[in-house]
Amino acid sequence: MTESNSKIKSVEDVKALFSDFLREHFNFIEEKSFVVLKPKQFLGSENFAKTIAIVKGAKGDYVSAGKESHFRIPLQQEKAKELPSSYDEVHQMVMDLRNYVEKATEGILKKLVDLR
């Protein structure tokens, strides 16, 4: 049931990694860049071993913090857009934006005139 992190984008993706039996042992909480799995009760060594194997397979880890101990699995981050690599690309982007703004402004002005 292990899976790389390349497909994990939500709590539902994390839940899908676990059997129904194991899923019932956790509260799943989506944070900014992780899904946190907080055990509802003591897991025992067998369930802990199964869980850590799944979590590690998804590039996650275990945070030991006493009663606040939990597992966490990172969410796939969206790749940032590549920056333009040349002056010509930047110039074209600026011109496209300028044209868009001019057209939008013309449309707004026309609507204002029609309101009179």
SSE pattern, N- to C-terminal: HHEEHEEH
- Quickly count the helices: 4
- Please give the share of residues in helix: 40-55%
Could you give the count of β-strands? 4
What shape does the CA trace take? elongated
Percentage of β-strand residues: 15-25%
> What is the spatial order of strands in the main beta sheet?
1-2-4-3
CATH class of the largest domain: Alpha Beta
Terminal CA distance reads 66 Å
The largest β sheet comes out as: 4 strands, antiparallel
**Tally of individual domains:** 2
Task: Report the CATH topology name of the largest domain.
Answer: Gyrase A, domain 2
Radius of gyration: 24 Å
The mean pLDDT is: 88
CATH architecture of the largest domain: 2-Layer Sandwich
Structural class: alpha+beta
